[in-house]
Amino acid sequence: MNMIIFIDAIRTIFDNVFKCDDAARLQFVFDRSIIEDVNEPKSLVNTEDCLLKLASSGVVDGVYYCFVLRFRHNESDYYFNRFCEYGAFEGFNNAVFDEQFCSKFNINELFSFSAFNKIDVEEKVIRDRSRYNARRKGF
Question: Beta 62-73 vs 111-116: how paired, if at all?
Answer without folding.
Answer: unpaired
